[in-house]
Design a protein that fits this description.
Blueprint (H helix, E strand, L loop, with lengths): L20 H17 L3 H18 L3 H8 L3 H14 L4 E5 L2 E4 H26 L3 H11 L10 H31 L9 H7 L1 H24 L18 H33 L2
Antiparallel strand pairs: 1-2
Length: 276
């Protein structure tokens, strides 16, 4: 559970931490869109350089981001293996009834990079933004949806509470596991089925604790006469600064570079057919 980095906040003073949460939300969306638009090694090289620069500016330890990748390790392995063996194309190696193709290897590499960068990008946003700022930024960005009678404040409040509960539930899980181990429980030996059965005594008290915390939070909000976002003010209202506006121009240049690389590489692929 300690390997989950999404929802945690790493307090430090950096350029990324000082950015407006709306800028970071938009930047994360731009980054995710660029991941799925790119299908060439050159495009991923540009993405890697930009991501490394942001990591350097954020001052977040790289080891902390690597911990978050352990949670998707099994999903990553399954996705890569399935693409290597099940994607049709030019056969390189034939093993029994399975074939490894050049297209399968290429797609597996791209899918692996996308999953890894997806976790790093989303983790970086939460590690550099407090849950309160993240909720305020999301609420202000989605404010036009209020005209469609969508309860934006309630949705962002639920997301903020969920993010705050992630580290609390991780800590609670560690405490329960230590208590169960003291009573003789074994979570580390045996096969997959045995380990899954050993987790059942862990989930029951965890769910009970989570429900109890949710009830206590609801009672506390009702005691303080919480009635939603109507008429509420912010202690620290969000306001764009010069660095935030400059960051939007950087996002625009980043997208133009990604689109330009894709267009150029597509053109180079078409040229041989035009002059054949």
């Amino acid at each position: 559970m300690k390997n989950i980095t999404i929802g945690q906040y790493y307090p430090t003073d950096s350029v990324i931490h000082r950015l407006d949460p709306r800028v970071k939300l938009f930047g994360t969306m731009v980054f995710l869109v660029s991941l799925f638009l790119t299908n060439h090694y050159l495009g991923y090289a540009v993405i890697t350089i930009c991501l490394a620069a942001v990591l350097k500016l954020s001052k977040v330890p790289f080891k902390m981001l690597l911990k978050g990748l352990r949670g998707i390790l099994i999903l990553l392995l399954f996705s890569v293996v399935f693409n290597i063996f099940l994607v049709p194309g030019r056969e390189l190696v034939h093993i029994w009834f399975l074939s490894i193709t050049a297209e399968g290897i290429r797609r597996a590499i791209f899918l692996g990079i996308r999953l890894v960068y997806l976790v790093i990008g989303t983790s970086l946003m939460t590690l550099t933004t407090t849950p309160t700022d993240l909720a305020d930024g999301l609420e202000k960005a989605l404010r036009p949806l209020n005209k469609l009678h969508i309860p934006v404040h309630d949705i962002t409040m639920m997301m903020s509470i969920a993010l705050r509960f992630i580290p609390i539930l991780m800590e609670e899980t560690d405490k329960i596991m230590m208590a169960q181990k003291a009573r003789g429980a074994d979570f580390e030996t045996g096969g997959l089925l045995k380990r899954a059965k050993a987790l059942i005594p862990l989930f029951v008290p965890l769910f009970v604790s989570a429900i109890r915390r949710a009830i206590d939070l609801a009672n506390a909000m009702e005691t303080r006469c919480y009635q939603g976002g109507e008429g509420r003010t912010k202690m620290h209202p969000l306001c764009y600064k010069k660095r935030d506006k400059r960051t939007y121009f950087i996002y625009a240049g980043y997208l133009i570079a990604i689109f330009g690389i894709n267009r150029i590489l597509v053109a180079f692929q078409i040229l041989p057919f035009l002059f054949a």
